[in-house]
Amino acid sequence: MAMFSNTRTTAPSSGHIVEFKAGRSRLEPGSGGDATKKVIAEAAKGLVFIKQSNDMLVHFCWKNRETGALVDDLIIFPDDAEFKAVTGCPDGKVFMLKFKSSGEMKLFWLQDPSPDADKDLIKKVNDALNKPATSRPSGAARSSGSGAERPSAGGTSAAAAGAQDFNGMGGLDQSQLMSLIQSLQGNESMAALTSSGGGGSSTAAATAGTEAASSEADCEPTGESTSSSNPLSLDNPAIRMAFSNLAKKEARGLKKVFVPLAEVLSNEQVAEIARQHAEELTPLLPPSENPEQELSETVRTPQFRQAADTLGTALQTAQLRPVLEQFGMHPTVLEAADEGSLLRFAREMTRTEGGHHVEDSSPESGVPKTQPEDEDVAREPEPKRNRPDDMDDMDVD
Amino acid sequence: MGDAGNWCLIESDPGVFTEMLRGFGVDGLQVEELYSLDDDKALMKPVYGLIFLFKWRQGDHGNGTSSPDPTIFFAQQVIQNACATQAIINLIMNLEDKNVNIGPLLTQYKEFAVEMDPATRGLVLSNSDEIRSVHNSFARQTLYELDIKGGEAEDNYHFVTYVPIGGKVYELDGLRDYPLELAAIPEGGDWVEVVRPIIQERMAKYSEGEITFNLMAMVPNRKQKYQEMLESLQQANENNELDEQIADISRSIAEEDHKMAMYSKENARRRHNYTPFIVQLMKILAKESKFVPLVENSYQAAKQKAQMNTDKTTLPLKK
What we know:
CATH topology of the domain at 16-130 in chain A: PH-domain like
Order of helices and strands of chain A: HEEEEEEEEHHHHHHHHHHHHHHHHH
Structural class of chain B: alpha+beta
Strand order of the largest sheet of chain B: 1-7-2-4-5-6-3
Oligomer: heterodimer
CATH architecture of the domain at 16-130 in chain A: Roll
Structural class of chain A: alpha+beta
Largest sheet of chain B: 7 strands, antiparallel
Largest interface: A-B, 117 and 87 residues
CATH topology of the largest domain in chain B: Ubiquitin C-terminal Hydrolase UCH-l3
């Protein structure tokens, strides 16, 4: 009884501000030439939900209801994105989450057949995204300022875009930011900063973000190379804050993304290798009347995928050491696991298991080598697209 | 809840519930997931009860009259993770059908608890080691507890059951004090017809509030039913004019066999701890120098897709 009487006092028990059943859709070239796009629904059952994490950031998430995997987890800042209906889809209710700065969009189709399911949905989602529970200063500043229209006074579009980036997250609007910079620096250096923020687009921003967000020693040089008396150095708390906000902003697109381990392991190549090692692997599977078939199917089962994703999440949140210790892993593998990097873990494991050194294996795979500093910075992965696309697999519950 | 031992969270799945019935020693029943209240195939008659699952939230209640009728067997829910099991048992306790044998374990519980009040019945149920061990045998196996924020564990799912008892439809909700009397069933009428609009209204309300829910039905063991039909058809099939129907029924029996085989396979997988397998698989991949390329592929593929999407979205949507 205790558990339920507790939860009775907290309203939506999931902690989700809004949620609705929806699958993902993607765009494909339409028949009418380059300018037309077809919206293709992916069959997987899913759930879109919006929640606010402890740090008050608003997350827009999509979970695959079949595997339970959290596929999308996007941090949205107020006024960052807009949720709206996609018109012209006759066979389903399709919505998009559109990012104002990049124009990037995510499409979802409603998997709830009841006619009222989309009532007020757009408003609820937009309210959840743009009016989070705590009052964020940015909202107030902007509404009292020159409005949400982006400035044309910024000169080049790159500069405007840069200002917009700053504008979007720090609680400062453009004029406030400009005056901050002026007060720090004087007019002559303003252009330099503006262009580095604007022209640099995601690369510059991401680098800056990493430096501000990370405490690692190798991120310090920027601070050291600039004189500490320079008001534009990272030592300046105001600049630090602007960059750290920028880092949060960039976290949306270029954050450290978990590569779901199921994506790595659930494919025909791995199934084939598993079959070749039936002797070692079959005893580790549930008892079956047809062990050969069970082994063959395993990497594609939802239960395996779920277990793999849990393990992968544990690894990439640096929580896997105690488990790996039970399997007598080499200390260097454990250290790699402590760093939370799947790639480093894979490399270390390859080394200790006596596989070829990493560099030898890359050419044969035909995949360009990943830059070391880039390895954890990947865009949100798309779900597998090998499912038939149809709208028939709707939930009617 | 402290005394009730550890009840694990289990998946809400017809395969889990159907095998759980077997585990309790119940014969003649199975659970089917419903995708529609008009799904005649899943709703094989007689429908013994409907199980409605939804994400519980405050201030949420159905409409009806509280009915402390002692002839209705109703146990209150005392612990959270057992709610599916409790809902199913509440349903079975009220079920009287010569084709259903609820088995010694549940018979014993029923006889023991029938004189008690709803709260004590719930307590007795949650303290039953036998029932708990059947329930827990469906729990997912892991070696470790993870600190994953926003996980499933935060969600409170709740089950209520709809059952026809003595000419009336009741809602049994373990969070209430008493059963809820919803409507009378007309003489010779089908209770599912009576409850349909009530459930549909509830579904509409939840859709509006974006609450997840699903619906399952407790129906006769379909294979047994089909076999009875098959036997009577075969007896009547003197001039082979029923061959087609017989073939149909045989196919349905084969489908049920297949479904049960799948259930048992899936449940074996649910109960299995895949961690040693995955670790071994990763070691093998590493030894064969496949692990790093596979991981790189995943990063690469993710990036390329993201790039592709960005390119695409720069083009306007067709209006």
